[in-house]
Amino acid sequence: xxxxxxxxxxxxxxxxxxxxxxxxxxxxxxxxxxxxxxxxxxxxxxxxxxxxxxxxxxxxxxxxxxxxxxxxxxxxxxxxxxxxxxxxxxxxxxxxxxxxxxxxxxxxxxxxxxxxxxxxxxxxxxxxxxxxxxxxxxxxxxxxxxxxxxxxxxxxxxxxxxxxxxxxxxxxxxxxxxxxxxxxxxxxxxxxxxxxxxxxxxxxxxxxxxxxxxxxxxxxxxxxxxxxxxxxxxxxxxxxxxxxxxxxxxxxxxxxxxxxxxxxx
Length: 265
Prior knowledge:
Blueprint: E1 30-43, H1 45-55, E2 59-61, H2 63-67, E3 73-81, H3 86-92, E4 98-105, E5 116-124, E6 127-135, H4 137-146, H5 155-167, E7 170-184, E8 190-202, E9 214-215, E10 221-227, H6 233-241, H7 251-259
Antiparallel strand pairs: 1-6, 1-10, 2-7, 3-4, 3-7, 4-5, 5-6, 7-8, 8-9, 8-10
């Protein structure tokens, strides 16, 4: 079987400039990821276990998965959108010139959180870019109330704030999951992730006092292949063997469609 390719969007946007320097001379760094290709698949449990067995001789867990329970680590994202859900609409209609704004935590409880990440995710043709900056909880609290940063922001947090003010973005929904990340033993430029136990909740805070979560339906495991170059041949053969077909799989659109029922009435 020929593995499906990701459809090229119809227009191109200019990404944020690549910046790799400390945040204002402090120990809170700015980090940007080089643009990459992303392929996404939804797996049932049986296919997941078969793939994991097939991948085991050629991959290892990354350092974050190795630290976690069952070789997984927690991820929570708070997504922002306009009052009329423009980011959602742009995704489902295939607009290429688009960007998603989110704040991410790797801890489910505020008391355990060492930092948060401000993230901008862009699509440029077939390429996906992710631009990330760490912020303190104090910065986050101030931003949520005032929509400004209490300290001098780095370039990613500054652009995040500009977009929030320009588009009047507001927090809309939380997406939680447990990520299992694999790296190839041959050092090829590929990262494979399996996202388990997806759940969604309407929320306006990364750490809401009360959130009513819904388990993602249909229940499935999201597999993502991320690479800056073409997939290695061994990975292509694996995709062919298990008849994997790429699917549009935005966790944000999935969460909106499941939690914001009034939008679709």
